[in-house]
Amino acid sequence: MQPGLGLAAQPFYLDTRGGTVLCWWHAPAQPAVAHPVLMCPTWGDEEIGAYAGWRALANSLALQGVPVLRLDLPGEGDSLPRAAGASAWSSWLDALDDAALALLQVSGSPKVHLLGLRLGALLAAQLADRLRQRADQVASLLLLAPVASGRAFCGRRDC
Length: 159
Fold this sequence. Notes:
The chain is of the alpha/beta class.
């Protein structure tokens, strides 16, 4: 592989409690860290604007030896609609929770690094609380430009 070209991400669908989500697995050629990263995306127009940069960050991390899983939230991007009757927020959080558990199982790691962008930062923080209460499965939590409130950010009651 030529430097700078990046690694090809492997797309797949994952069935979660929140709905079926499209995921991309960015596997490093040579793992250099003990724990994988789960990227928790933002939402709406911000997600569209951040998509290329988010993908580039995942590729860059994989090139440095960091295994990364990123996904489209239920009902967003190329994921299928969220679970019937569930709020967007609970569907998104359940999907991220199930993705984290799948990532831990596949990687064999006892912990995961959580990386959240904007609204995804709030989701990552709540997910970290769930994972810590369940089995202390969080290696680190990195929040990029977190929003103060999901409701204020979304402007809707179901977010």
